[in-house]
Amino acid sequence: MLEPRDAAELAEIVADAAARGRKLELRGGGTKADFGAPREAVVVSLAGLTGVVDYDPAELVLTVRAGTPLAEVQALVAAEGQMLAFEPWGEPGATIGGTIAAGVAGSRRVTAGSARDHLLGLMAVSGRGEVFVAGAKVVKNVTGYDLPKLMAGSWGRIGAMADLTVKVLPVPREVVTLAARGLSPEAAHAAMACALGSNAEVSAAAALSDGTVLLRVAGFAPSVAARCAALPGLLAGHCGLARLEDAAPLWQQAMTGEGLKGAVRWDVHLPPRAAPALIAALPAGAEWAMDWGGGRVWVCCDAEDDAVRQLAAGLGGEARLVAAPEAMRERVPAFHLRAKGVAALEARVRRSFDPAGVFVTGRFPEDADADAVLA
Amino acid sequence: MSIAMPVPDAETLAKRERIARALRAIVPGEGVIDAPEALRPWESDGLTAYRQPPMLVVLPETTAQVSAVLKWCHAEGVKVVPRGAGTSLSGGALPLADAVLLGLGKFKRVLEVDYEDRVAVVQPGVTNLAITQAVEGRGFYYAPDPSSQIACTIGGNVAENSGGVHCLKYGLTTNNVLGVEIVMMDGEIVRLGGRHLDPCGLDLLGVVVGSEGLLGVVTEVTVRILPKPETARAVLVGFPDAEQAGACVAQVIAEGIIPAGMEMMDRPAIHAAEAFVQVGYPLDVGALLIVEVDGPAAECDFLIGEIARIAGANGAVTSRVSENEAERMAFWAGRKAAFPAVGRISPDYLCMDGTIPRRRLPDVLRRMEELSAEYGLRVANVFHAGDGNLHPLILYDANVPGELDKAEAFGADILRLCVSVGGVLTGEHGVGIEKRDLMPEMFSEADLKQQQRVKCAFDPELLLNPGKVFPVLHRCAELGRMHVHHGALPHPELPRF
Fold first, then answer.
1. Which residues of A touch B358 (CB under 8 A)?
2. Helix (H) / strand (E) containing B415
3. Interface predicted TM-score of the whole assembly (ipTM), two decimals
4. In this predicted model, what pLDDT tens digit does every residue of A18-36 receive, in sequence order?
5. Residue B429: its chain A contacts at CB < 8 A?
6. B413 with B394: CB under 8 angstroms?
7. Which of A25, A168, B213, B341 could cross-link with A82 by S-S, CB 3.0 to 4.6 Å?
8. Cβ pair B439:A116 closer than 8 A
9. Does A270 touch chain B (CB under 8 A)?
10. What is the 3-state secondary structure (H, E, C) of A302-360?
11. pLDDT tens, residue by residue, A226-236
12. Contact A132/B444, CB-based, under 8 Å?
């Protein structure tokens, strides 16, 4: 494992690999190493690039080295009454860079946006071994192409972030969860759609398979009180609502899919209105949880085939394979495959950063396939 | 007129009639404009100091026509400049003498609204405001609200990643678009994103938004619509100077309040606006803040109280809270009329658009005053205070020989100043041609080359909107090479402007 201490060393490592035709796997904390196909590649750990570069809470902007542990970043901003509003989450050891490169976002994503929406700028090393900067360290900027968008969710396929700048926002003063019980998936989705479409400013909405629906109301105390008072009336046609204390474990379940049983785990993103149909058609024994008002459904089962992916595709959505036995990961790609034209364009964009294919490690087999077509 | 455009290609100009015939075969009827007098209305966008009639204009009505036009132009090596409503303030839609101007104005339909999933699918020629008008009957709206929202189109908003006064709380275009259909320069139709969140693969949608018409032509847009806030209230606060107003803004944010809008005006801007619309702005203050909050009435009432308290603690000398909708609109009327108001006190003005870290505001304003004295040109400032986005308006008279050049030089100095304090060249207007030659102030050659390589992945022949955004046109083949030596410019034969 290679462990660069700064961007210059990182650039040297990548340039050298590009010149010698070697492959590199970029890694933050290594907590998602089992995502994607099994492969053998030299790992470059970015965990040595740590520390805060600049943080002025009043500017709503934080610049940190990419290998800084996510938990440290969260503690740092929490001490100033701020947060990463896309609600990133991860295993202990996850880094801020790895979390953003994996496009991780929590329950708040439905209203506050994802990692892509909060990554403002970066300094990175491309597959050419060149250091480049993109975006900026201010919250409002349209100077040049928005390359940070490409880097968020790129899974180490185009470059390695060394520094990154994220937007931070104030932590709501008060957070209340209102819950309904005993709803079918259809009724749960309808209730969440009604709540998210109302002006009661629900910031997150999730549903569990036991029929529980969770609605999060956050903000200043008088506002939270007014909205909590209004919501039961707004949802009167759908369900009753009651204030739920200690809701964190339930939110955690909906946000991460944890607690669902099965060796195979899918993360399905789809138009929220299609979520009940997806759930109704799941293979027998499959377990599920809905987040993002139904726009995300975690599915766990033991079946080692891609029936869930086919189902998602048929409903206008897509499925990521997030956990599976090695044999299945060998066979079934982690990502939903893109349409042909999009795949070709994506390959050209990827190669504009990484012409030698340094980061094509076999983790995402479709990349090597696309490169073969281009060549 | 200090910004040079690429030299027109004589071969292309020579085949103009054949190009017109070929495009008429694709877009019949009135869809192709080539009479010289009919091209005049198309010669400029919102950056009116620059004018250039296009070679010809084509106004397709279907995605298939857009695709066929681009495919034909691609095969023939003819450049294309896409255009929405032509309200760009940076010259993003400025025509080229040897390029086809592709207008999307006939794509005017709202295709579908899904209230349950809170998305609307619209054609690119639909105006920003028309999206809100299409959904407001059901209590929804489209959040980004650039000041040109009556006229500017959603396709242009996607190209420019447009913002607006509410973007601190609600985000820019990029945060409110879920998917697009684009036609690439070779005619291929591609759909990026869709009606679900965070699709697999590289976020190509994210790089298309804000690409200023250089990567593809947008033919359909899927946007997020939001429930309209229950109510909105504004407070108008006057301060002796901008420093105290800036301190107030910082404290509002430090106390955890993200207002829906927070605008600052300096003394010249206040006076120009008040003279124009007479809305009762205080004239004896050095800086004026308009702070708007929206949401449930209980929240607005609470926050207005908090903001008034913070303003008082930071030396506010006047404070007025809107008691009804008419009063709130009046507070905004002066701010929204700031540009035309300045247009009334000066024959011409240039509107700049830099963003700075807010803590540097006093330094930047002080230095701007010095520059104003050095150049002998007046400047008025309006400022999206919450996010640090400055709009200095430089007053000049185009009829005075050399004054436009002087104003442009002053503007460039202001933008350099923004970059030097850790800010950027453009917060929301785009680079276009206006800030093209300043890009090296913010980005190294390596940074710019990486951006241009992305351009090459979409449009390897560089036929789509050339001459915009990038100060040096590198051929894609040259950019593709792995080892480029730093230092002296390696290719003196390349066009640089």
1. 58-59
2. helix B403-420
3. 0.97
4. 999 999 999 999 999 999 9
5. 142
6. no
7. A168
8. no
9. yes
10. CCCCCHHHHHHHHCCCEEEEEECCHHHHHHCCCCCCCCHHHHHHHHHHHHHHCCCCCCC
11. 999 999 999 99
12. yes
